[in-house]
Write a structure and sequence with these properties.
alpha/beta; 13% strand; single chain
């Protein structure tokens, strides 16, 4: 990848992020290109080793001849709004690979571990012909679940020593994974951590880890015995009562620092992504992603309409005073402002 191409990509991403005058043209071209990059999200608690893992995975894929883009969602600066960590801190071995492009994107205070512009940035990268986009989230622990709406394949990473039994039984983050990864597998209790997560997965899914060819009579009977919550989780990865195949999230152990287990993760992710495409779920996922992105962008625009420079009087500020005086409630204020359709 030549320097001129890297600069073109960087400028297009900046346009998508900053929502400047050229943003609409850039995004229209990106979505019209209909690129088919595979979007792999990596999430998990802070300190799990996500950055090292993503670097190793990108290096592995790049050396197999793939074009890789890494998007790292970083915490926002409270002053500039920019990404705190930046590109050079996050990259390792992959920086030497010609077919790897790296970009840090500020979360800009957006709740959920992602950025409001992340979907558009990925569309830009996909339009430039990347084979994979590796998306690394801030690492907001159990609340870091929004990645599910964006990634085609979500890798949930953990490490030994985080209260494994309790963490594995929690809803939220543990329910977002298509593949679970226990990093730092050389540490004590790593095998126990993997065991706890496998037990949690087996409590919600029926079948062996990975791709399962359904045996209708046996699976339908088992499906009928599952709780409503179990059935909801299982349908996300295939309905054993109706589909010819299902996916059961596997639990893999790696040591990112040593580069161990990376190839197995890459192969497993490809198996899942192939299944997602062959069953038509890839198209469904894309439609859901775009639907939610429209709502996310619309929400940001509506919020901006009710904002003003510091010190300016706004309709929102007027409602604040009414609530403090005991003459209204936040719900009443929101309903009134929404019906007005304007902020001042």
């Amino acid at each position: 990848m030549e320097g001129s191409e890297r600069r073109r990509i960087a400028r297009a991403i900046s346009a998508a992020e900053n929502r400047g005058d050229d943003c609409e043209a850039v995004l229209r071209a990106a979505y019209a290109a209909r690129g088919r990059a595979r979007i792999v999200g990596v999430t998990g608690p802070p300190g799990a080793g996500k950055s090292t893992f993503v670097d190793r995975l990108a290096t592995h894929l790049a050396r197999a001849g793939r074009r890789i883009a890494i998007v790292a969602i970083d915490p926002s600066s409270p002053f500039s709004g920019g990404a705190l960590l930046g590109d050079r801190v996050r990259q390792g071995d992959s920086a030497a690979e010609e077919n790897v492009f790296f970009r840090s994107v500020s979360a800009r205070g957006y709740i959920g571990g992602l950025s409001e512009t992340a979907v558009d940035v990925i569309a830009v990268l996909s339009g430039f012909g990347f084979d994979y986009v590796l998306l690394e989230t801030v690492g907001a622990g159990q609340s870091d679940v929004e990645i599910r709406e964006i990634a085609d394949c979500t890798l949930v990473m953990t490490v030994p020593g985080l209260g494994d039994g309790v963490q594995a039984s929690k809803a939220g983050l543990m329910e977002t994974g298509d593949i679970f990864i226990v990093n730092k597998a050389d540490l004590p209790n790593a095998a126990d951590t993997a065991k706890h997560i496998r037990a949690a997965v087996s409590a919600a899914y029926m079948g062996k880890p990975g791709l399962n060819d359904v045996r209708p009579a046996k699976m339908v009977a088992a499906h009928g015995q599952a709780s409503p919550g179990q059935r909801a989780l299982m349908r996300r990865h295939g309905d054993m009562a109706a589909d010819p195949s299902i996916w059961v999230p596997p639990v893999l152990s790696v040591s990112a620092a040593r580069g161990e287990g990376i190839a197995e993760v890459a192969a497993t992710a490809d198996t899942y992504l192939d299944w997602l495409s062959q069953t038509g779920r890839q198209g469904e996922r894309e439609r859901e992603r775009l639907y939610r992105q429209i709502l996310r962008t619309l929400s940001t625009m509506l919020m901006a309409r009710f904002s003003a420079p510091a010190g300016a009087e706004t309709a929102v500020a007027e409602w604040v005073e009414r609530i403090i005086a005991g003459r209204a409630s936040p719900l009443e204020a929101a309903r009134s402002l929404a019906s007005q359709g304007q902020g001042r």
